[in-house]
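Dear support,

I submitted the protein below through the web form. The confirmation email said the job was done, but the results page showed an empty box. After a refresh the structure appeared. I'm attaching both so you can tell me whether what I see now is the final result or a partial one.
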Amino acid sequence: MDKWQEILAASVCNPADLPDCLQPDPDAAATAATWPMRINRYYLGLIRQHGDPIWHQAVPTGAETRDKTCMVDPLGEENLSPVPGLVWKYPDRALLLVNHACAMYCRFCTRKRKTGRNGLKIDSGGIERCFAFLRHTPEIREVLVSGGDPLLLDDSYLDWILAGIKAIASVEVIRVGTRIPCTLPQRITPKLAAILKKYHPLFINTHFNHPRELTPEATLACGLLVDAGIPVGCQTVLLKGINDNADTMAALMRGLLKMRIRPYYIFQADMSHGTDHLRTPIRRGLEIMRRLNGHLSGMAVPAFAVDLPGGGGKVRLTPDTPLTDGREHVFTGFSGRQYTYIDPE
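What the results page shows now:
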């Protein structure tokens, strides 16, 4: 096995197998039975103590099962899927879900309903059906390859998928959504970078949430991608107790630029069932953006956005965006319809 495969094979998948100093509450085992746990040995090594910002992202707790606000399919993806494995929300873009697995199962995942479950795998036949739909839908000009994590697939299979997308004449741009550079950077090898390089214009959006994730290993991995001519952006999720203060967020954004990663979005956390304890009020994000503006280079300031529940799409918010009183905030999506985002309890 390659080094990254050995690290992944040694993952901790049961709360009871965590070191004693990192043990979660007694309800964690029941939570992990509902939403799978996987912490690979690299990411486990980033945790310094119980309850720190890395621990909260990776370790299940009973709070996930006590969520009474959020929803199973927060972005309405199942209703926007013309064929299994493909989500078509925006007129010119589609989301291709090619993998159910990740190197680490984030406790705030927007697709908790799918990730880590063998029954939700999509095989090559399913991907071929997605290709057929794309070929017959020329208005789709951009394909985002995601999952799960597409970079956890074998090199040859990933190469086949990207070649299939590239062969569709109407597709002009390929994007890959992956958290691998953060959670298992050893997976980014020169061979993988060479495969990705064949399919330009290809962009990668990755996902760092805390400055402690910006390790030498992550820097090396992102360097391989950038040196292959692949623009790398970061989509950070605003998370309670992890990065919901301006100092942490500013340090993260500065660190990303040093790694040649462009801060792209700070996302208000999606209303994914089991994540309410990790969400922040929208106003907190606006306060952080007010602090970042003018105190960071413009290149280091991402857009703050909420991806509207029910498939309304992303809406960018600024510190001057008016909000209603209370927990419920109504926004108009790109289609002109209104959608409601509910702050955490």
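Response: this is the final, complete result; the empty box was a page-load delay. Residues 246-258 form the longest helix (13 residues).
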